[in-house]
Specification:
Blueprint: H1 2-12, H2 15-19, H3 24-53
Length: 60
């Protein structure tokens, strides 16, 4: 699997690919933005759930 990934990175960073104006950098940035968004959504949902759990009675 790592060889396949390494081969793909070599293809994407080859001079022929770079001349097209595309490369791995936009995809890396996109993945980073998706990760940051996922963490933000998790943090928001965690705060909401924690707040709601404070309203649930512990002894029914």
């Amino acid at each position: 699997m790592l060889r396949k990934l390494y081969g793909r990175i070599l293809v994407l960073t080859s001079p022929a690919e770079r001349d097209r104006g595309e490369g791995p950098v936009p995809y890396i940035i996109l993945v980073a933005l998706i990760g940051i968004l996922a963490v933000a959504v998790y943090t928001a949902l965690n705060g909401i759930v924690t707040g709601w759990l404070g309203h649930v009675p512990k002894n029914p």
